[in-house]
Queue: 4 jobs
Job 1
Amino acid sequence: MRAVWCGFALGVIVLQRQASLPLASAWIALVLCVVLMIALVVWALRAGDDEGGRRAARIVSAWLAIWLASVCVGFGYAAWRAELRLAQTLPAAWQKRDIEVTGHIARMLAQDAAAASFLFSVESWGVLGSHGKTLPDLLQLSWVARDAALPMLVPGARWRLNVRLKRPHAEGNFGLRDAEATLLARGVRATGYVSDEQRATRLLPDAQGLGVRIERSRAAVRARIDRVLAHAPHRGIVIALATGAQDAVSDDDWRRLRNTGTSHIVAISGLHLAFVAGLAGWAAGAFWRRARWRGVEAPLIVPAQQVAVAGAVVAAAAYAALAGFNVPVQRALWMIVVAAVALWRSREVSRSHVLAWALGLVLVRDPWAVTAPGFWLSFGAVAAILFAASGVPRVRHADETALSPDELDPMREHDATPPRVGRIREFCRRVVGRWRVSVRRLTGRLVDSARVQWAVTLALAPLTAYWFMQIPLIGPVANAGAIPWVSMFVTPMVLAGVALPAPLDGYAWQAAHTMLSGLLDVLGMLEGWPWALLRLPQPGFWALACAGVGVAWLLAPRGWPLRWLAPFTWLPLVLSSPVGPSPGAFRLSALDIGQGTSVLVETARHALLFDAGPGPESTHAGERIVAPYLQTHGVRRLDTLMISHDDSDHSGGAAAVFDAVPVRDFVAGILPGHPLWASARKLGAQTVQCAAGQRWQWDGVAFEVLWPDPGPLTGKPNMHCCVLRVSTAQGGEGMVSALLTGDIEASAERTLVARDATGLRSQVLVVPHHGSRTSSTEPFLDSVWPLVAIFQVGYLNRFHHPQSGVYARYVSRHIVLARSDADGAVRIEAAPGSLAVERFRDTQRRYWMDTVNEQRDE
């Protein structure tokens, strides 16, 4: 079954990398392949018992056929599930319209005093008319209290709501995770918000069902923790350990945990589930051994071992439900179930078979689990432990702990001794002997624990580098204390609070919070060590493959040859650096940050970020997208951060950028009293107000500021917005230029055209003011005359950017157009005489991605 489930998993993984779902011809090919492989297996099994190589060849062929058939089945199963889920579609004409829906709250995602986010299960749509599609039955909604306090929102509560919806859409950027895959895995086929809270109506009766009861239990536990801990700084970790919900964990706690490699302790892991299952199994078995039924001892009816196994499975399932069935919990639960079935049937099953069954069952339930880092980290950690333990005997032999006569009695003499002295010596000998046995056992367990920690740390390092662009070097030290502390003390105390009534639950949770405070203080100290964290650009496939070979080499059983060569396979991962442009060329990356601007310009050895996107007051794009993008692509320092003007969708993310990477020069078109100036100086950056005439060169690439004029900034922010021109060579033949315009408007465009129309000529134009009607005048476009124009706009944004008339001006000039809401991020490679354009949704497209152009076709 290992080969079957591994092949099934590979087929699922391959499907999730496809740009489109298979057509009819591909389905026919899949069916034919499976039939052919089954026929090959039948032939291999029915063939005679040949000797020598023919029999071995048939066996190999049979196993290969089984594996290929499993791959095809996994691919087809995932495609079938995807077809069913994508069939639920919100009609394009219904987007951003007020629609009445009736249903119940399926799950609370996040909630505070003024806002909430939740999954809403739709029972009926208040929209008439033929739409020709199956409407979504699960929505992800947000509710922001504006005119009144937020009502009580609990799972199972039925509501009639007026909502505004749109199809699932997430920003698409090279190297960053795709949130659309997360929505698809949840079954969400439309997102939106409550548009008219005054017309929201609570309906009775509430929804019923096992899922609703589970979610209500989770919400009730969270409410109890909120009442006890209120404003405690680490309340979010207690909630995460109790219910699996991680939305309340503070940014400061996340930073400490990530930088020390201990972020996994926030998740309810297999270790926690095994602890609960083991405790429940022990209690059930102990009770059953002492129970009697009508004078007959209970173990004579059903063996106590089977009752203990059943109790462990029930407790594990209950805790998994409370934890929200995340991927690590699912993996641990299925492993417990498979092992329990084997015990019930008195069958011995290997640990690798148990893991393979868990892998298959997780993907049968959720084929999109492979798109989440938790899947790879969870299964990778367990696989590493099993592989590292494959060369270690399962049972220590008696001679490992046996003591020689001289060790048992170091004072032994060969001459006769009085009986009383002999008894004393015998007592001392036994005490010393038992103490030495205990020390040896403890040492053995510590060695085994260290081996496990070493295996997990080593195996997860490449995956951590890929998903989070860093390797916490302090991780083994931090985990050596954090894992036992959380597993043995914090988690049991949290679970005790869940089980105990008030006010005893409060004492348990306060004790858990106190222990967490001490742990976080220690982690904060470790985080400050200069060598604690190694930041890396996101590695490519070959670097990951080489590191994976090195992991297997180092964790192989004892006696594996040339083990000392294994660390050299890590060099492509550790020493990898992003491939920058050649001297004289530049790379321009216009990020997809929704409604806002952020453009990264890279030369051979320098980097400039033009604007930082929205901040906490809006979509947190600076923290969610801009800063991670810089880290993913190996930008360890910004030579210049240029903020064009004081507008939240341009300057809001600057604080997140300051926190993520060092900044040498801060150039901005903002007023002198703006707090960003003080933040930049505090971090050691040189501060300069941008003004026309500023020029510099990096690696043969020229930079020139064209606007605003020197002097005090007057008027509204758009009037003194920085305009930057980047050129491959100043005045050289085949020069390629890019013009970054911020939010300048028509008056500034006229001034620039009148001042130097030929100096505006650029092959690449980041469209002024996102395509607003106040910009992109005809004379300005005729002066710039771009070959490529980039619109950085939000998906179905409330400003209706780009304005249709403005967009038509660009279309009429036959300019190559790219817009972030339809194409995602845009990457341009500019060199003297050459220009290459790459759109994210062209080269990184997945079958679940929906675009503006597709919606227009409808």
Note: The chain has 30 helices and 25 strands.
Job 2
Amino acid sequence: MASLCGPGLAVAETPPHPQTEVARALSFPPTLPGVRDPKAPLQFEADELGGEAGVNTVAKGRVRVRQGDLTVRADELEHTQADNTARARGNVRVVRDGSIFVGPSVTLKLDTLEGSFESPRYWLARTQAGGTAERIEFKGENRLSATGTTYTSCTPENTASGDMGQPAWALRTRQIDLDFEANEGRAEGAVIEFQGVPILAAPTLTFPLNDQRKSGWLPPSITFDSKSGLEVSTPYYWNIAPDRDATLAPTVASRRGVGLDAEFRYLAPSDAGELRVFGLPDDRLANRHRGQFNYQHQGSLTAGDSLSPTQYTVQWQRVSDDDYWKDFGQTIDSDTPRLLDSHVRVQRLLNERNWGLGDSQTELYAQVQSWQTLKDLDLDAPADSQIGEPYRREPQMGVRSRGLSDAGLEWDMRLEFNRFVNPDRSLTQGNRLHGVAQVARQFDFNGVYVRPKLMWQGTTYDLDRQGLSTAPRTVSRGLPTVSVDAGMTLDRPVQYFGRNLVQTLEPRILYVRTPYRDQSDLPLFDSAPRDFNQYAIYSENDFTGVDRISDANQVTIGVNSRLLDEASGAELMRFGVVQKMLLADQRINPNGSEPITSRFSDLMLLGSSTVIPSWYLDGTLQYSTEEARAQQGTIGVRYTPGQWRTVSTVYRYTRDGASQVELGWQWPIGGRQPTARQMIAQQPLSNASGLRAPASCGGAWYSVGRVAYSTRESRFINTLMGLEYDAGCWIGRVVAERVAIGQSDATVRIMFQLELVGLSRLSLGANPLRTLKDNIPGYSLLREEGEPLPASPSPLHDPDD
């Protein structure tokens, strides 16, 4: 969504928001702002000066009058001292604070800045845009009225006849009244034209004159969706109070019917939140009511300057049905659109120093958490497409304390209680009390470090009986773990690629010893095997969570080598290799029930490089030395020679699993690629009009996209392709997105956006920017959010100003 705006004109204004793309409304800059001294002396320059002393001054021929930051130039000017009024005729130019007015005649009282300008052209320095007016009435330092106005940041090209043509876009109003002191404006008969075609209109508008928010209608959003058809939404923004606002967006989908999307936001000194509700009372395709509810809140129960704040968060997400993620997936604000988290969490931090042991931090926390799991109701969907619902925590309560003693001893203790419940009553339910205590000390010897650590974990379960099960209700487990982590860093100066570099060699060894305990009678509430990566291979437990602790008598050995720029310390290249060696069979296997008898784990290889300018290479490989083949790996290459130019490709491989290639890009494909400053190139001044004729708004075409192709299934998974056109004074985008939502089903969306630069990023149509930024690595906005055209000489610029 974006604000309809013009020369000081905005239907509505909302602040930027992470979930909704809301553009800032145009703040039409006061052309005669600030506090000025009306008694400042007048400075006259002209070919001829005359008049009657104490009555009037008449100047002719290249006239220039200055008073402070105000300059008036004309062919002829008369100043009467009785009313301190200047009457100028012939090629009149009025300049103040960089804003320029050019026209045939002006009458202006210099002490009160009251008067009128006939048929002026104007240029506003702050927005790098301007236009024309039939008449401007100056009503003091902070008020003016204009009739028959146009406003644009585009500059028209000369036509074949030599006349100035129409700009690419323009906003026209019948009348506009601006009151800068009251920060208020009113426009009548506002129409936005693009390529000479009216695209948006409003009969009467009131608006703020700066970045303050204003209630009103926002431009419509138009999207085509293969499931919903043509969808049109017309939002209304309600500025309830400085700390509260709401957006109501009636929506019509050609295939589904009428719905309403509503958002309410609030902000307080210690609280902030957002409520979003979407309702489609009668979905004609699904023959049922559809909807979404999402509430998020963050707050503090303690004063902001407290050293022991009590903070809390609330999140509640729910959708109406299991197919919602397929039909309205783009509206779900979650990284896991099929798994919606709802929780209430409270935590209190205590910073203290205890018994001479050193600095410590203690955290008390409690949480209630539940999930909504959206199933795949497609009968042809493979079994592995279904996801199980995680256990709910009703509740979770705990305390954690950690610190560093004066003697360098690190300690960490945690005690936590959980009540686990699952809607599937065939699964084990119950309570768990878990405690962890660990202590470590690092010793440093001239670049070599040794860090021994001792840890003890104790867990007690109180399980609900399941039917006639004879399994014990109460089960306990206690396990110690001893580890020693050691490493060193060696470096030497080298010269490669014509540069002074530093090469490092960083070996590391980790020994872990954890005795075996039979855990087959323990439930699996929150444990899962760790992924095989450079971080997990150095962990002391092959499982996440609490319910499983792998036995270990093992050594992990690895080495990294890096090339660093000697001057900046920037990393240019990295290569590493890591492997784990078992000194005894591992009886608790994360990937099966059989013990692990192989003495060597898979080899982990990793590397990255930025040695070649504009190129970035990155890759990891899990290699089985026993089977002499790769198990999984990723290799990626990105080429970014400059802004708005990036191409990246990634290949991901998993043995007996997914294998896919991803390609993403943003690249110019036609036209010139001028900067915004070049869009306002200076041209010789036209004596007839007093205007320069800058370069046209012509610009460059860019292709953007991302394609993910499954080589194993020989099909495209997700596809995003589009075109961007940057004309300097306007930007157009058309983006088509195809998202697979099943083995043979996909959703296709077409989004378009017209961005009129100079109206503070007025955007018409569905905003695809978030989609582009989320999907294309290295994507750059053609113009950053809120960035105006750079300060530059205006089309009315004169070197003598």
Note: The two ends are 40 Å apart (CA to CA).
Job 3
Amino acid sequence: MKQHDQTVTPEKKTDTKKYVETPLMKQYYAIKAVHPDAILLFRVGDFYETFGDDAIKASGILGITLTRRANGAASFVELAGFPYHAIDTYLPKLVRAGERVAICEQLEDPKLVKGLVKRGVIELVTPGIVLGDNILANKENTYLGSVYFGRRSTGVAFLDISTGEFYVAEGSDAYVDKLISNLAPKEIIYQRGCEERFTEAFGSKHYTYRLDEWVFSEEVNREKLCKQFGTSSLKGFGVDHMTSGISAAGAILHYLEFTEHRNTGHIRSIARLDQNDYVWVDKFTIRNLELFASNGAQEKSSFAEVIDRTLTPMGGRLLKRWIAMPIMDTARINRRLDVVERLVGDAELADTLREQVAMIGDLERISSRIAASRVTPRELVQLKNSLAALELLKAAMESTDCERLHELADGIDPLEEVRERIAREIYPDPQNNQIQKGGVIADGVDPELDDLRRIALHGKDYLARIQQRESEATGIPSLKISYNNVFGYYIEVRNAHKEKVPATWIRKQTLTNAERYITEELKEYEEKILGAEEKMLVIEQRIYAELMAHICGSLTVLLRDAAAVARIDCLQSFARIACERRYVRPVLDEGSLIDIRAGRHPVIETLMPVGEEYIPNDVMLDDKQQQIMMITGPNMSGKSALLRQTALIVLMAQMGSFVPAKSAHIGVVDKIFTRVGASDNISQGESTFMVEMLESASILNNISDRSIVLLDEIGRGTSTYDGISIAWAMVEYLHNHPTAHAKTLFATHYHELNEMEQMCPRVKNYHVTVREVGNQIVFLRKLERGGTEHSFGIHVARMAGMPASVVARAEEILRNLEQVYGNNEIVPSRSPRERGKRHTAHAVREAAESAAPQNMQLSMFQLDDPVLVQIRDQIKGIDINTLTPIEALNKLNEIKKITGI
């Protein structure tokens, strides 16, 4: 965990030699002292420079040259820099490396100042506070998190400054940890002095920054939030009672001010994340179900990537939130499903909506850049085009007879006045994408601007005429008039013609192959032209600023439009994938039944080889007849996939999506728990088994009557009897819990657990079928009633490429075990632990001894492999004592040919 502290002051490096710092370095150190833990990009002329430790760090991250510069007498300082116009290339690299970056600009025009130019930090960019498009991911939020450990509860807030989304919640540390896992903030701030509690509650992998306790003052932050939203209280947002949450949310606003992000007009509201509104999906479940990142080698195979058919960045970000936070309100879910069903049934309407949605830009991030006065001219043109598409989208939804689409259309305001003003004042294709360069404001907006443009345009035409006239008068055909920042306009003559230059021309520069001159006439026109260009820039920037101020008045409406488009985009995405993959509408109610017929895994079925189809399966769970399904079967048979697909189908249904099944009846769940797959946390000293037990404990301590629990191979990380005992006790706990009959799928290799069906009436045995063909097994991947006694472990070992000698030896030992002890006698599930261990060990030893040949060492020549026999015969006939080196090489070549290598 990277920890940073607002009040840390840098240690002064002492030097035995006395020296006097240069004025520039004095200024640098004064600014650096305010931001000691950030890399300071210090603007000097046309370069951003870094000094000292910052230079060493920056040169390593950016791959730029590290040098030294003088810093007064008998001293030097490390230096590394890059051109100011390359900041869009270098800044993202620093931020992605987890660095805080303070951008220090020249606050005065060097031409107008004598001596040292005034400088100051204009922005502090951190992993959680980013506005630049070159750093932000289109379909991913960049949240800044804030945690406050209050007396009664823990408060948490999340802000994405690039979109204006602001959320607040409070509850237990476990609930806050779940929200942090759901929203995955890039940076978290919290109060100093709580480092140990933070690490215990949320782990050590987060990028964090500590602030003083006073920053989290509830009274001050309540006032700060009201001022931000322009309200007298927070009751209208439903967060007035959340004292810890208000402390956390207000601290975020303080942090924005501290990092010089004061233009926050797009942050207009805050939303409460209520624990009772969303399904509990903790960090273990997010990882085990591979919701956002695949644990395997295949790219683009996470659940989010596979189901995403959104057409806008806003839609992509909202889809990820819907995945992380499925809802529990059946009315809200069914409203989403109604729209999806309509779009599935009306392809023409769906195509019309998609056509318009695809033309809408990232309204959320454009809004944030308008508020921060950073929006580019081309983004304004994109906004204008997006508003035009919004109007057509609204009309298309209103033309249908679908009530749900009418409700969504009511939330859209195309902002016709804003669109028309942009169209009137900005060129449709601006000459430059920076207002500082001009060529952005359209003709006819300002009469003075139009007049100045005529002067500048005609002035340049006159220069062309001067060039033609002087070329003819002097007889110099290659003569040309050019411009640079040093001399302004000049005449360049190649050396071959310099004798023809008139005496009235003034020579200014000699080049290798040419010379440059100026004339009085050129200087006169230069003053007129450049004066006009400077005035034009001033006028264009004024008009542009007025336009920004006008649009700022509509940011609340614009953000509401963005939210509506994001919802429509997600719903059309659900409809599209439903059509592509034959998904069906699930039935959701408040009951306890989960009944999935012919369910499929939404990710695995897309990765199947051509011509091969995913084998569907039925799953039925309730709290009265079949609460726990005990599933046995060999590895690779599909047990884990069955568990995951059940969880994903439930999650998809409560997102408002159609699901991969023939039919699905879902009684809404409040928590989805999974313990699937093995993983170590070696850095924290936790083994696979410890991680398994931690995740299992979290499940058992948080289940409710509406939870669904998916457990895979519990207890396999320890000895057989320990594992069986733990697994048995967990099933009993889930079955006999006095208040919470959590619906459970329990996949296991411990066939002894099949005995539980006789003891626990709501436990039912199932197995995943396989077929033996000779010494091979075929995985049928079909779930059937009843347990199984056979693990097929040796068959799987053979399929995995285990050496044939090992497989053969294992089969010998297994046959002797089965002949002497039978299938179930050596591991009696109800035997005392120590007696059972001695019994098992004795059985295996006897079987191994009776099956072992005289020489226990495995030999490759005991195999009945004709190739190996040939090689053996070749080697047996060799007399090593008389073999020459060349004969040895020839013999080795013959053996190589036999093997076919």
Note: The chain has a mean pLDDT of 85.
Job 4
Amino acid sequence: MTKTCPGVRSRHRGRSVCVRLPLAAAIHLACLSGAYAAEEVDQAPQQSSTQQPSGEKPTASLGEVTVTAQKRTENAQAVALSIDVLSTDKLSEMNVNGLTDYVKMLPSVSIQSASPGFSQVFMRGVTSGSVGNNGVANHSASMPSVGIYLDEQPITTIQGALDVHIYDVQRVEALAGPQGTLYGASSQAGTIRIITNKPDPSAFAASVSTEINSIAHGTMGYTVEGFVNVPLRENLALRVVGWDEHDGGYIDNVLGARTYPTSGITASNASRVHDAYNESWLKGARAALKLDLNDDWSISPTIMGQSQHNGGVYSFDPKIGDLKVSHGYPEWQEDRWVQSALTVQGKIGNFDLVYAYSHLNRSDWVDQDYADYGFWYDTLVGYGSYLKDNDGNYINPGQHIHGEDIYAKSSHELRIASPKDQRFRFVGGFFAERQSHRIFQNYQITGLADDTSITGWPGTLWLTKQHRVDEDYAVFGEASYDITDQLTATLGARFFHTENSLRGFFGFGPGYSSSQGEAICFSDYKFDGAPCSDVDQTTKQNDHVGKANLTYKIDNDKMIYATWSEGFRPGGINRRPGLHPYQADILTNYEFGWKTEWLDHRLRWNGAVFQENWKDFQFAILGANGLTEIKNANQARIRGLETNLTWAATYNLTLSAGFTYLNSVLTANYCGLTKANGDPVSSADCTDPSLPDVSPSAPLAPKGTRLPTAAKQKGNLSARYVFDAFGGEGYFQAAGFFEGRRRTDLRIAQNNLIGDMPGYGSVDLSAGLKKDAWMFDVYMKNAFDSRGEINRYTECDISHCVQPRGDVNSGVFGQYYITPIQPRTIGFRVTRNFD
């Protein structure tokens, strides 16, 4: 799949690739082309309004919503795709600041989160509930199943989606279902696109907004944000955006102590006691330039950066109390990233050409209390007996982690699209992406003996020093043909080559383990300061996915469509010796949808019913020593309904609702075993002739088991009423959100131990006034202080951290954590616009 180019060298050792050719070609064409007006890829008006004759009472009508979901500018109602769009106005009206705010408005989307900036996003229930040490995917996990884009550029990393601050954003598009043909590997279950406002050379504009807020059971916060759009010349404009946000805390770290059984040592957290433990600070900026080279071509460079510091943890221990933990080691997270992007767009004849480049640098630093691991392993298997100081005395076996994840991700996309008003039209192109991830995790025990520590790392029980690289190269295209004025057929395909490699060191020192870490090193190469190397593996794949669609236009306001589409995630490396690489998994979607407008464009009703078959899906667990293992888990099926409705009931009152129902189950037994070729075992007794040493046992999750994390039902309902007030426009708004009960683990025994996440509802209320250039808003999020759960997890394998007592009537002992939605938050915001 990789094509060589004379004289063009890449960073890959021993080979050359066409990494610079798309940029060179695009700029060359920009400088030489001529006579057709360019169409802005993402700078399209969000809504159109109906002008009323003077003196007549205005009538209610829904405006047109424009999207670029299919890589061209279109009316959302004309796109044969299940898509939710949150416009600039909607984002502002709903007081959206970040990921968790807009996800609750998208019924097809769910998240698994440990703290801001560290969340995994899922769509349509395509999730196996795979976990890491803090309840979300870690560096050893599969690629995400939902792609997140910032304008034209992918911003999805292994750690999860970037939590982009939502301000001066034109819209958020949520594309449900596999988007494999146009968006590739990280869009197996869907894609979320954040489209920013672009520089406008036609007029000056600016705005500044300040906000104060208070969280129930916690502390005060504030937000200051603003933008300025400056025309520099008639063909050149600059847009600069900035924000500074402080969120109050609401998790208390309370006084507590625990006694370790083996040594009898009692550890207290007295020095770490702190109310509102989880305060957060967020700063960021974006600068974009737009240069119109001529009537046909433009260049748009953009740079955006954000720094977020989170103190403490965003979860609580229900054994300790509501919104309380008792931790004795430092806890904080730092997430910093900068993305540089360049978009070149224009025309060759009647054809639109777009080149999009981006480079993302992301650095995460984490300190985490990991004492639960030491305590429960000591309680169950006497783990503390192996941990002593240099004099042979027992020590506190509580662990604490320092981790660093350094990402560098570059992508190139060159695509061409034919005129959209032609009977036959197409879009196609080339995509290349490389993500480098340098991993450092240091599991420390204070006072640990030198002969038990990692060589050269005093006090370190376990060390991870690795370099992971994920590459993706693809050609893609979609073509549509109007069979009649009402019937259109579309075919699409993506041919891809992916590679995943992992090299470096992980494991224990020679004085602690004879089967892990230094004991199994095959090379003396001290990778990045590690004592040696014990992993160096690569896996590759060539494959393709496809799409077919039929769309029937009933009239100008109504259409129906039927779609078959595929999405994929690449396979990858398992670190544990003896485990095979995990295979790619494929999601196949069968969908029937409708898009309709009624009552003279006052009522919009869209929806889709679908079935998605998930083959050999990747499932990650925490295995022995808390080491992530990924295996293919056979088959699953998701059947669902998603629908949304917007009604302009009167000129003053707008009602909207969205709802998703999912029935997601295993269609084959999950045994947790794979054959020698990597295929999953699914027999009734979980045995296979190729695995003679495996004893017969029951499936870990039998056929028919519901998939975890995503609820059967999720929905929202909102009402907004506007009215004349004080010479301006006032409003009242109420919005309700609900999410049903969710399993926490695919495996029956583990889920029974930690329990389901119960269903919950929440209500947001707001009111405000807009007068001249001023806007005043007051809001109350989660008005009734619901303790809805968005995650439930343990620090070690559930079967160790949570165990049933001998007396089945006395419940369980152990430790797990609940990540709640943010408690009731009341805020007041003032905005001043300038033009």
Note: The domain at 21-45+61-690+698-816 is CATH 2.40.170.20 (Maltoporin; Chain A).
